[in-house]
Amino acid sequence: MTNFTKVEKSRATSFVNQLLPCEPAETTVEDADIPDFIKEMNDEAGATTVVKNCELKRYLSDDVIYSESVENYWRRRKLDFPCLFEVAAKVFSIVPSESACETTFSLAGHLLDKRRNRLQHETVEKIVVGCQLATKYPEWVEDLQE
Question: What residues does the HAT C-terminal dimerisation domain cover (predicted)?
Answer without folding.
Answer: 55-128
